[in-house]
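Exercise 7. Given the components listed, write out the predicted structure of the assembled complex. Treat all entries as one system.
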Amino acid sequence: MTYQHVIAFIEHKHGTIRRSSLEAATQARTLADQLGGKAHAVVAGAGAQQAVEVLKRYPLDQIHVLDEDRFLDGAVDAVEAVAKAVGPALVLVGNTMIGRDVGSRFAARVDCGINADVVDFKTDGGQVSCVMPKLGGLVITTCTLTGSDYGVAAIRPNVFAAKETSGAGEVVQLPSSGKASAVTVEDEVEEAAAELGVEEASVVVSGGRGMGGPEPFTTILKDLADAFGGAVGASRAAVDAGWVSHGHQVGQTGKTISPQLYIAVGISGAIQHKVGMRTSETIIAINKDGNVPIGEFADLLVVGDAFAIVPELTKLVRDAKAVHA
Ligand SMILES: Cc1cc2nc3c(=O)[nH]c(=O)nc-3n(C[C@H](O)[C@H](O)[C@H](O)COP(=O)(O)OP(=O)(O)OC[C@H]3O[C@@H](n4cnc5c(N)ncnc54)[C@H](O)[C@@H]3O)c2cc1C
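Answer.
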């Protein structure tokens, strides 16, 4: 199937847009230029108008807004309405819980396919193929969706660039449905917040069994992560021990992340951990064992006691920031 346009679904929390959605908005422009079509964004829910102000700084032709607080149903309705109005289109969502939820519900409504965890695109005429790692990254597949005017690609966070431009997209208000929300959000669980952290942070500081207990996750590791403006991650050993919640887990049965900097503290680097972080731009391991497996694929292995090294490193980062402030 050939597409003409690209639609980025914008995920936000009370108007604060997730970085993966800004990446989707930027990638929508790149693909739309290759297809000779337009780049659209769809934003819905409470705070949508605030999100629009940010989206105006991104290279979009049109920003469609549904200012109606119907959790996810409103978003799916809005994506469907825009897709049907613009014609053959590829819909980009973040490969996040909400992105995959909205993308798959849209796909079910219009009977199209969805590619998840997309890390690259190939265009040929109007045809778009999605490149995705499978089997924990051991196999790379290239998949072209056929048989529908629409397709959905859930893009892996931190892989595509998010770039602001000076051009402002035209804002189009979508008519309100007048429907009541079928869902009431009563509480936002810690897992969701943790997911926001490790998947979107450009620096992740992860702790493993070598941390010896829960405390370092809220003290020395958190201090280092905070100094970078990053997030705390964990190996499964630390999660299974109950030291930190599963939302922080990196690896085969946790999150797959690609931050600019990954610091593994007291983590041996088992294959199941490696598949979740090996695409990080720079990997630093801190371990008391100079022959630890993670040393084979880390850019830098610092050998020594984490409890001595991490606070010193935090101090260095804070001092460096103070100098550059
Ligand atoms: C099906 C399956 C799925 C899995 N999924 C995941 C997953 O998603 N994520 C994941 O991480 N694992 C996963 N695992 C588990 C994985 O195989 C490893 O058991 C786990 O990653 C080990 O965690 P670790 O590196 O923290 O612990 P260990 O392998 O025990 O390593 C601890 C490290 O800490 C170092 N150390 C100890 N004290 C200090 C100190 N004071 N200072 C510095 N270093 C110190 C040690 O030298 C050692 O290298 C999975 C396993 C299976 C079978």
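Discussion: The domain at 5-173 is CATH 3.40.50.620 (Rossmann fold). The chain is about 35% helix and 25% strand.
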